[in-house]
Amino acid sequence: MDLDRNWSLHCFDCGSEMKSEPPTFLCPKCGGTLELSLRRGFLNRRTLFSRSGSPGIWRHKLALPPVNGLPVSLGEGSTPLLRSTGALSRSNRYEVYVKVEGQNPTGSFKDRGMTVAITRAKQRRAESLICASTGNTSASLAAYAAKAGMRAVVVIPSGKVASGKLVQAVAYGAKIVRVKGNFDKALESTIDAVSKDKSLYLMNSLNPFRIEGQKTAAYEIYEQLGHRVPDAVVMPVGNAGNISALWKGFEEMRVWGITRTSPRMIGVQAAGAAPIYAAYLKGAQGIEPVEAPETIASAIRIGRPVSWKKALRAMKDSGGACLSVTDKEIISARSALSSSEGIFVEAASAAPVAALGRLPESLRKGSKVVCVATGNGLKDQESVRVALDEVPLVDGDSDLHKSISSA
Ligand SMILES: *Cc1c(COP(=O)(O)O)cnc(C)c1O
Ligand SMILES: [Zn+2]
Predict the structure, then answer these.
(1) Which of 41, 213, 234, 279 might form a disulfide with 284, Cβ 3.0–4.6 angstroms?
(2) Closest to 133 (Cα-Cα) out of 178, 171, 102
(3) Nearest to 17 by CA among 34, 38, 40
(4) Which of 374, 378, 379 gets mutated to test ligand 1 (max ligand atoms within 8 A of its CB)?
(5) Which ligand 1 atom minimizes the distance to the CA of 235?
(6) Whose CA is nearest to atom 14 of ligand 1?
(7) 239 Rama class: left (phi>0) / alpha (psi -120 to 50) / beta
(8) What is the 202 CA–ligand 2 centroid distance (Å)?
(9) 3-state class of 135 per DSSP?
(10) Is the pTM of this model over 0.85?
């Protein structure tokens, strides 16, 4: 590997060390997913949280793959961690926090991973960047490619991508290709294209540089809680890269001796797209793909999650759990977040809040529970917009007064 000697790239499944990056980021021996590792004992509290360099995730650059020169950055990371004061805290037993990832530059946590992966791609002089996406990855890739002056191709499923996300990809100037079928099909075709065409560089979360960037949310949560580890972190799970990433971040801090414990990782899937949940319930060693995943939460409408193994490991090793929630529960949680906490998220991001009522009983009253609000609601307005039809149209000052007092 052309990384410095503190880093290794190996297979998460069989452990094989990679001498170079396979174009598909799948292990040539067993087909498993890859993982980057920073050798033990390398960082301490002072070096991890040093304030030198750019703000945001690059504050933690000593924990990130090495960069020659400046990273390609749009100012990602350093998102707020808000303590719930509204309905979320009143209606359940925990001290609830919301990590507002929708405040990243393109409106989702994907930007944390994208800045690291594109910096790597640029260093490797990649010609064209490609990803398959349910929407947010394409918006993010398109923006970072624009900033880097690189070409981006985004492959999206033919239906059901939130229009706000597509609009972003168009605005940032990416080439957009629509593939018949769902996200899983789009990813399969993209991986196939990457394996055949050497000019393409894969930017999905199979790319372990993405995971390195995304793990920084764990460092931030720890620091924002006043250098305390939360009791549980609850996150939506689609392709399962992000829950694996945050677990990696928390475990690194523990292994480096910065913390003593790691939080319980609780993954939440939508009932109509829940292959990891099904495997978790059965205690199965493998997942059975869901052929036609269906949920309003389009960012997690995924039937063949590539990082399922990492996610199951995170949930088991942390003493966490996998849960599933219905679309109806997601819609009502989304509305609770916006109308009682002032945080407007897209549907997938409300799944953790929807699951708050059924966290493991062993999680004590008063536990610090962090819900990761993965993406911004402004991208995904369709389901909320219907309420506009009920907005009254009034005529003149007296009507306005009447209408306000009856509201
Ligand atoms: C990508 C995404 C997810 C799912 O993350 P995975 O890493 O695929 O599990 C959840 N919510 C939003 C808003 C996303 O963009
Ligand atoms: Zn392998």
Answers:
(1) 279
(2) 178
(3) 34
(4) 374
(5) 10
(6) 299
(7) alpha
(8) 18
(9) coil
(10) yes
Terminal-residue alpha carbon distance, the chain = 64
CA-proximal residue: ligand 1, atom 3 (nearest) = 299
Please state, in angstroms and rounded to a whole number, the distance separating the CA atoms of residues 339 and 86.
Answer: 9
Stated as kind and residue range, the H or E segment containing 316 is helix 308-317
- Give residue 15 CA to ligand 1 midpoint distance, Å: 26
Q: Are 286 and 315 in contact (CB under 8 A)?
A: no
Q: Where are the domains of the chain?
A: 81-107+210-385
Query: Percent of the chain at pLDDT above 70?
Result: 98
Q: How far is the CA of 238 from the centre of ligand 1 (A)?
A: 6
- For 365-398, give one letter per residue: b (16+ CB within 10 A) or e: eebbbbbbbbbbbebbeebbeeeeeeeeeeeeee
CATH T-level fold of 81-107+210-385? Rossmann fold (3.40.50)
CA of 239 to the centre of ligand 1 (A): 7
94-103, pLDDT tens digit by residue?
Answer: 999 999 999 9
Ligand 1 neighbours, Cβ below 6 Å, are 108, 110, 136, 205, 236-242, 299-300, 346, 348-349, 374-375
What are the tens digits of pLDDT across the range 177-218? 999 999 999 999 999 999 999 999 999 999 999 999 999 999
**162, two tokens:** 């939130």
User: How many other C-beta atoms can be found within 10 angstroms of the C-beta atom of residue 331?
Assistant: 17
Q: Checking DSSP bridges between strand 34-38 and strand 7-11, what pairing results, if any?
A: antiparallel
**Rounded CA gap, 269 and 352, in Å?**
9
* Nearest ligand atom owner, CA of 31: 2
Does the pLDDT of residue 386 top 80, yes or no? no
